[in-house]
Amino acid sequence: MKRIILVSNRLPVTVEHGADGFTVTRSVGGLATALRGAHAWADAVWIGWPGACGPLDEHRRARLDLELARLGTVPVHLSAEEVAGFYDGFANGLLWPLFHYITGVLPLRLEGWREYQEVNARFADAVARNYRPDDLVWVHDYQLMLVPGMLRRRLPEARIGFFLHIPFPSVELFATLPHREKLLEGLLGSDLVGFHTDAYRRHFADSVHRILGARTDPYRIRHAGRDVRLGTFPIGVDPAVFAEGGQRQDVAREVAALRGDGSCKLLVGIDRLDYTKGISRRLLAFDALLANRPEWRGRVRLVQIAVPSRTGVRAYTRLRNEVDALVGRINGTYGTAHWTPVHYINRAVPQTQLFAFYRAADAMLVTPLRDGMNLVAKEFVATRTDEDGVLVLSEFAGAAAELTEAVLVNPYDVERTAEAYHRALTMPAPERQARMRALRRHVLENDVYSWADSFLRALAIDRSTSVKPTFAPWPPRRTPAGGVATRSRS
Ligand code: ADQ
Q1: Which of 120, 158, 288, 404 is at a distance of 20 to 30 A from 60, taking alpha carbons?
Q2: Is 165 a catalytic residue?
Q3: Which domains does the chain carry?
């Protein structure tokens, strides 16, 4: 069995400092859950940044590295300057907004390109040091786009895969990026490049064709005398975790408390506090619902949970102020002594509460302006073993290509999004159940394990084999109801 080297910006660990040293624990959620299966497979190693560990003398650093090795991980330690330039500057200040089509927050001056290259080179060094012939190397996400190319020069025979967790934008936008050639060439060091949707895969092939002049077809690119395969691998969740979580006793008590006597319907939003997640427009649509349909006043509330994120990037401070102000305005305008329209929780919540919110929601609002996939939508569906609850989903989330039975919305169209909330809140039970049953079928059949499995299988097979298409092409079909639908996996 082949050994796997996983490579991601963050290691799936949390290092905590105490008076007598540090403790290292495995973290849950996100990529940590997604790759748990792959990490446990054979004697995999995971290479990445363990987070800021403060100043450590040589002895403590060696002890920390030993602890990390015990968990099957290899650290790439980064200095504060490297994090500022590579992570806050180039990756999150430029690539993140550009790849999500949020051009309004792009910096006037390019920051962090030098650090981005240096840190990518350090990751490539760490992989090369740990590499053994026949290993599969799987690199993750936009922070490490140069790593496959750097590795290919050092390990020409290595089997290298890359997966992009965020959208790949249209060539019109990608072409504006300084250093676009270097980034594409970095990715083309891979044997296989994976995306969440067919649209992202096609955008990438278009960009390579237009910018590098390479010969491309939908699933293969000929570059520098090698074939690079492309594939669509939509990520999923671990449905058992959410099904079991949603049915726990303590969760049931919390659900009852949230629902109260049932006279007030519950809308729920759960996100990282990120401008791509569409929280401001989601609030504006709720405002419009209360303005246009006064019958909902006192009869519906929105719980918005937003976990603080990337506080080192300026655009995130502005977003926080904007959301604070909108929540204040809506509550000030419509709130009464007996009813608060928006309950805003600006911190991470424990898993028990997450399960309870998913379970208690009459409608879950997942309305990003753009999102690679969006796991919250799939976690909500996985939790609803009661086959009830409505998913309101942005057509600009990767998940919309699969979850076609959701109520799909254009989050930029605030008035129609407000109408979609109304539709979700008034949907008859048989329709809610039919839609939820169909959503559940898809989420249960396409879980996170089949995602990792299918990518690794495709990476391990012969280089000349092409990756089978899984989804119908963008743009989605229009449904008679005016919503948007794409064909789901056959
Ligand atoms: P993210 O942008 O982080 O991931 P998402 O897919 O929604 O977005 O995952 C967020 C995770 O954090 C979920 O597991 C959710 O439960 C958890 N979470 C969110 N808010 C929380 C809160 N307030 N408290 C506690 N937990 C919270 C990136 C891409 C996505 C892609 C994933 C996986 O941006 O598009 O789906 O990677 O590829």
Answers
A1: 120
A2: yes
A3: 4-235+448-488 (3.40.50.2000), 239-444 (3.40.50.2000)
Q: Is 198 in the pocket of ligand 1 (CB under 6 A)?
A: no
- Could you tell which of 27, 162, 376 is best to mutate to test the pocket of ligand 1, judged by most ligand atoms within 8 Å of the CB? 376
Report the phi/psi class of residue 432: left, alpha or beta, with left for phi > 0 and alpha for psi in -120 to 50: alpha
pTM of the model: 0.93
pLDDT tens for each residue of 298-352: 999 999 999 998 887 888 999 999 999 999 999 999 999 999 999 999 999 998 9
Contacts of 232 (CB under 8 A, 6+ apart): 194, 195, 196, 197, 198, 200, 201, 467, 469, 470, 471
Any idea which residue has 């922070």 for tokens?
A: 143
Predicted confidence (pLDDT) per residue in 363-404, tens digit:
999 999 999 999 999 999 999 999 999 999 999 999 999 999
pLDDT at 490 over 90: no
Check: CB of residue 378 under 8 Å from CB of residue 372: no
DSSP 49-97: E--------HHHHHHHHHHHHHTTEEE----HHHIIIIIIIIIIIIIHH
Catalytic residue, chosen from 140, 165, 196, 223, is: 165
29 ligand 1 Cβ < 6 A = yes
Residues 6+ apart with CB under 8 A from 298: 264, 336, 338, 339
Cα(29) to ligand 1 centroid in Å equals 8
- Give the closest residue (by CA) to ligand 1 atom 35: 372
- What does the pLDDT average to over 209-229? 94
- Any atom of ligand 1 within 6 Å of the Cβ of 371: yes
Q: What is the pLDDT of residues 261-299, one digit of tens each?
A: 999 999 999 999 999 999 999 999 999 999 999 999 999
Half-sphere exposure of 488 (CA within 13 A, CB side): 15
Q: Which atom of ligand 1 is nearest to the CA of 306?
A: 23
Task: Look at ligand 1, atom 24, and give the residue with the nearest C-alpha.
Answer: 348
| Residue 269 in contact with ligand 1 by CB distance below 6 A | no
The question of whether 371 is a catalytic residue gets the answer yes
Residue 438 CA to ligand 1 center (angstroms) comes to 23
* 3-class DSSP state of 229: strand
